[in-house]
Amino acid sequence: MSDEAALIATLNAHLWRNAFNVWLGLELVAAGEAGVEIRLPWRAEFMSNPDRGGAHGGILAALIDTAADFAIAARLGRPLPTIDLRVDYHRPAAAGPMLVRGTVIRLGRQIATAEASVFDSEDRLLASGRGAYFAASAS
Q1: Sign of torsion, CA 9 64 111 33?
Q2: I want to staple 55 with a disulfide (CB 3.0 to 4.6 A). Which of 51, 75, 92, 93 is the partner?
Q3: Exposure string over 71-100, b if 16+ CB within 10 A, otherwise e
Q4: How confident is the model over 78-95, as pLDDT tens digits?
Q5: CA angle at residue 71 from 17 to 48, to 5 degrees?
Q6: pLDDT tens digits, 13-48
Q7: At 76, which CATH number?
Q8: Helix (H, G, I), strand (E, B), or coil: what is residue 135?
Q9: What is the predicted pLDDT for the residue at 53?
Q10: For the chain, what is the domain count?
Q11: Residue ranges making up the domain that contains 110
C-alpha cells in the first residue's frame, strides 16, 4: 500500500467515526502535504427549497469545515476541534455530486488555520471558507 493510500485509509477511518459524515456519504479520495479532496454524492435530503433547487448552505459549510480540518489531519494524524469558521457562498449548489478541496494555511502551536473550496461536477466554485482549529488539543 502506498503512503498516500495508507494516509487516505487512516483519515477515512477518522472521517467515518462521525455519524453525520457517514450520513452525508463523505469519502476522502486524496490526501497529502498539499491537502485533501473529499467527495460528496448527492442526496435528496440536501435540498434546501424544492421550488428553487440547490443544497442547503449548512451542507456546504459542513463540507468546508470537514475538508479544512482533514487537511490539517493529513499533517497531524487526526482532526482537531473547530474554534471558528467562515463561509462564502458563490453560487447555488444544484443537485449532483460535489468535491471539496482543503489546504492548510498555518499550523501553529495553539491554533491551526486551513481553507477549503467546494466544487460541482463541472468544477464550478460553489462555496469557499476558512476555519481555525484548536491545535493545542493535539498534544
Answers
A1: positive
A2: 93
A3: bbbbeeeebbeeeebebeeeebbeeeebbb
A4: 999 999 999 999 999 999
A5: 65
A6: 999 999 999 999 999 999 999 999 999 999 999 998
A7: 3.10.129.10
A8: helix
A9: 79
A10: 1
A11: 3-138
User: What is the model's pLDDT at position 137?
Assistant: 62
Per-position b or e across 28-55, b if 16+ CB within 10 A of its CB = bebbeeebbbbebebeeebbeeeeeebb
The number of residues in the chain equals 139
Which amino acid makes up residue 64? Answer: I
State which H helix or E strand residue 64 sits in. Answer: helix 57-76
**Angle at Cα 66 formed by Cα 136 and Cα 63, nearest 5°?**
155
Tell me the C-alpha distance between 54 and 96, whole Å: 9
Helices 57-76 + 3-15 axis angle, to 10: 130
Say if residue 55's pLDDT is above 90: yes
